[in-house]
């Protein structure tokens, strides 16, 4: 189970809307100046993701919850997203090379195969996302933000 903490944005009728912060993968690496991942992280303006999760327990805005998703569903979706365009790229590129015998045809076939693999992954993702095993679940719930109170006793009260 892969776990991540999120903040409740709203809760209504057994459905919680939660916000997860995007964590950059490279903040402490020694090669930050030449890192491609760092550049890609800076390009995306989105720093939070908002998702909907079922929750029978009433939640309060600002409350922290721990979300979990099965490793199998994460690996399956990653394979679908990355491998289907790659397989389409190589397969159609090879077929066009054999059929037409030119590099230009192979390049066009590879482009068509990559786009086709992407569209195939996009079509399957909606069906797979409907599976209950692929949905994130709330594993634990933190205290509401207004419940925790810390009192400091003065030295006179002791």
Explain what this protein looks like in three dimensions:
The chain is elongated. It is an alpha+beta fold and 158 residues long. The mean pLDDT is 85. The chain has one domain. It is built from 3 helices and 5 strands. Strands 3-2-1-4-5 form a 5-stranded antiparallel β-sheet. It comes from Silvania confinis. InterPro entries: RseC (IPR026268), SigmaE_reg_RseC_MucC (IPR007359). Keywords: Membrane, Transmembrane, Transmembrane helix. This is SoxR-reducing system protein RseC. The chain crosses the membrane at residues 74-98, 104-121.
Summarize the structure.
The chain is α+β, with helices and mostly antiparallel strands and 158 residues long. The protein has helices at 36-43, 71-100, 103-129; strands at residues 2-12, 15-21, 48-54, 64-69, 137-141. The protein has one domain (2-141).
């Amino acid at each position: 189970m892969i776990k991540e903490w999120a903040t409740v944005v709203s809760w209504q009728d057994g459905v919680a809307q939660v916000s997860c912060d995007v964590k950059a993968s490279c903040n402490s690496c020694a090669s930050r100046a030449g890192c491609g991942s760092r550049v890609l992280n800076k390009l995306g303006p989105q720093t939070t993701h908002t998702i909907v999760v079922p929750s029978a327990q009433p939640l309060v805005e600002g409350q922290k919850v721990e979300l979990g998703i099965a490793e199998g569903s994460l690996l399956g979706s990653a394979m679908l997203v990355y491998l289907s365009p790659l397989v389409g790229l190589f397969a159609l590129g090879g077929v066009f090379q054999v059929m037409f015998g030119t590099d230009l045809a192979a390049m066009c076939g590879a482009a068509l195969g990559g786009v086709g693999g992407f569209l195939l992954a996009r079509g399957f993702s909606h069906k797979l996302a409907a599976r209950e095993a692929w949905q994130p679940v709330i594993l634990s719930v933190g205290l509401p933000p207004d419940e925790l109170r810390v009192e400091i006793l003065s030295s006179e009260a002791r």
